[in-house]
Specification:
By secondary structure, the chain is mostly helical. The protein contains seven helices and no strands. The protein has one domain. Helix 4 runs antiparallel to helix 7, helix 5 packs antiparallel against helix 6 and helix 6 packs antiparallel against helix 7.
Length: about 180
């Protein structure tokens, strides 16, 4: 990480992860797609807003996103913080491209709009939080109540959108 801006390295790692994830979906073929299951059906099958599967989805999203945020925060406090944040950006790129690939496989041309419907609402909250955490990587750490509260609000809003808004949009368009 000698040359270039740290933000450029993060974007490059995200792009490399997206390329690797796309290659993985295309090379794995039906095996990965079968293991991924019916993601669209899972989201649309929550029964609309606050249906029977919504609480389980909210709980799962809360644990997963809180864990990812804690890992990113902890990685930012280490001696190799920027390298670890770049690896986490690559992981994010892989995740994004695998989900998009599976949605496209399941829904054809409607895969991209479906992906945007189900992922964009929570991304509006997660991306600013995770970007702020990645920007502080390797810097002297100061704990401020204002920052913790803002991060908690962004995380909670993202979890709410992931558990209710995305599935509701999928349910209205594809399942309702």
């Amino acid at each position: 990480m000698k040359k270039g801006n740290y933000g450029d390295w993060l974007l490059a790692a995200l792009a490399a992860g997206a390329i690797l994830g796309t290659a993985a979906v295309n090379l794995a073929g039906d095996q990965l797609r079968e293991q991924a299951g019916d993601l669209a059906g899972l989201l649309a099958g929550t029964g609309g807003p606050f249906g029977k599967g919504t609480w389980e989805l909210l709980r799962a999203a809360a644990f997963q996103r809180a864990g990812e945020t804690a890992v990113l925060w902890a990685a930012g406090r280490t001696a190799s913080a920027r390298l670890l944040c770049c690896l986490l950006a690559a992981y994010m790129g892989i995740s994004i491209s695998v989900i998009l690939g599976v949605f496209t496989w399941e829904n054809g041309l409607m895969g991209l709009p479906y992906y945007l419907m189900t992922v964009l609402p929570q991304s509006l909250f997660y991306i600013p939080l995770w970007t702020a955490l990645a920007e502080t990587a390797g810097r002297p750490f100061s704990l401020r109540l204002r920052g913790i509260c803002a991060g908690a609000v962004l995380l909670a809003a993202g979890v709410f959108c992931e558990g209710t808004v995305g599935p509701w949009l999928a349910w209205k368009v594809f399942g309702g």
